[in-house]
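Task: fold both queries, return C-alpha cells.
Query 1:
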Amino acid sequence: METFSQQVKDDIIRQELSERRHCLQAELAAIIYMAGSLHLTGREKVSLSVATESAGIARRIVKLFKATYQLEGQIQAEQVGKLGKLRRYRIIIPAQPSLNGLLSELGMFSRDNLLENDIKPQLVKERCCQTSFLRGAFLAAGSVTDPNKKTYHLEMVSSNEDFVNGLVYLLNILGIKAKVVQRKDKYVIYLKDSETIVKFLSLINANIGVIKLEEVKVIKGLRGEVNRLVNCETANLEKSLTAAWEQVEIIQNLSRSPVWHGLPEKLRITAELRLEHPEASLKELGELHHPPLSKSAVNHRLRMIRRLAKGE
C-alpha cells in the first residue's frame, strides 16, 4: 500500500513537464543536488548518477535530462534492503561534453572545474523557477507524513550543509519558515505547521496532498469540537446529578424533622417529586408539576427548601 508521501509524489510526476526550459533546469538541478553523485572517469572527465526509490521519479529524471540537455540516461535497478525486497533506481549519465556543460550551467562546476555547493542564483531568479527547484528537492529527498497521524511533518534531507542553508533561504523568500536539524551526517529541513505544509505543497503543485491535508484538518477540527461539546455536556451532567443528589439528601433529612410538617404545599410537592425522580433535570422536574413550572421556578423552590433545612 502506498504511503502518503508516495501518493503526493505520484501526483506530481503524473503532471506534464513545464514548457519553460529554465523551470526544468531548476527542477533538475535540485534533484542532482539532493540525490546525485559525480564519478571521476578519467582526466577531467566525470559521469553522473542520480538515485531514487521510485520508478516514476526515475522516468521523470530521464525526461528532464532529455528535455533540457538532450542527454540520454540509462536506468539501472538495484535490489536493496533486507533480503533485497526494496528497489533503488539509478540513472547513469556517462562522461561527455554535454554533461560538463550541464554541470557548469547549473552551477555545480566552477570555471576551475571545482564542485560548487551553493545554489546558483540565476537558477532561482524567477518565482516559477523557485517553485520548480523546491519540487525537484522534494521529489529527490522529501517526505510528508500522513495527516491522519497526530502530528504534521514534512522534511527534506541532504548531506550538504551549504546547500541546505540555501534551500532554507529560498523557502523564506517564498514565505515558508523552515527549521533545520542535524541527524548524524545529514541535515534535515522540516516543517511542522499544517498551514505551512499546505502552502509548500501548493507551491510545488502537489494538489492531491493539499486536498487530503485540508480534508483531514476539517475532520480533526470537527472531531475536536464534538469532543469539546461532549466533555462540556458530560461535565454539566455530572454537576447537575451531584446537585440533584445533594437536594435529595437535604429533603430526606428535612422529612425527618418537625419542619417537614409545616412545609408549604407547593414546596412539599416539589420536594416529593425530587425524591421520586432524583436524576431528573430541573427542566424535567418542572414538567412533572401540574401545571408545569419553569426551570427557574423549580430552582427557586429548591433553594427555599435548602434554607428551611438549614433553619434560615
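Query 1 returned. Query 2:
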Amino acid sequence: MGLTEKFISEADAALSSDFLEHGYVIRPVDDREALDALRREVTGLVAAQLGQDMPNDPDAFLNNIHRHVAVPALNPLRLAVYRAMNGKPWCRPTYFKLGRSYLEALVGNELAMQNRINLSIQMPDDDSSLLDIHADVFGGETPFQVVQWLPLVDCHDTKSMFILPRPKTEAVKPRLAELGENGMAELYRMVESDLIWLDVPYGTTLIFSPNCLHGNVVNRMPTTRWSMNCRFTGLFTPYTSYEKKIGSYYLPITTKPVSRIGMAYRHPTGFTE
C-alpha cells in the first residue's frame, strides 16, 4: 500500500487537468476565516476614508457603496484604500494564504508574487473602470504566470469578468492580424459568443492564465463589484519584461533553503581543472 506510481495527488491532477482544459479554475479559498478578516480590514479602510463608523454588515456596505460615493470620487477612494491596504504587513501574506494550495499545485512551491495587490471597484452602470479584452502577454508580461482574482462580494454576469477559454484563445490568435483600426472592439465582436462570464461567489477564488483573452464590461447589476487581483509566477521562470521582473515588480515569497544556497554559491578561483 505504501508504493505509488504517481508523482502528484489525485486532487492536484484533477485541478491541473481542469486548468489546462479551460485556462482557469474557481475553488473555495483555503482559509475562510482569513478571507472574512481581510474583508473586514478592507471595509474598515473604506469606512475610514468616508468618515464613517465600521459597518455591521461588510457585505451590504460594499455591495451598496454606490449609495455613498459619487462616480468622480470613486477612483480617489480606490487609490486611498489600495495604498493603505498594501501598506499593511498582513496584506500579501494573507492574500497568498487564501489560494496557496492551488497556486502551489498549478505554478510551483517556489514562487514570486506581484509586489502590490490590485483593487477594483465597479459601480452599477459606471463606464469609468473598464478593462477591454486583452491578454497580458500582448503587453510584454511573462507567459509563465497566473492571476489570483479574489471577489470581496458575490460576482456574476456583468458584475464579474469574462474570459475566453484557453482552447478558443489559442484558436483565435492566428486571426489577430486581421484586426483593423478598431482592434479591440473588433476582437470582442469576433469572440463575443464564446466568452464565459465567470460566476465567482464570495468565499471562492479564481485563478486564471492571463494568456487567455479576458476583460470586463459595464456592470449592469444593481450592486457594486469589489475584487482584488495579484500575479504569481515561478521563482526561476523567465521574465520577459524589463519593467516587470524579479526584484521589482515581482518579489520572491517562498524561496527554499537549497535555492538560497545555490544562488549564493560562487566557484572558487585560482584552481585549474
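Both queries returned. Flag for query 2: The beta strands are 24-28, 111-114, 118-122, 145-151, 162-163, 196-197, 204-208, 214-215, 225-234, 250-252.
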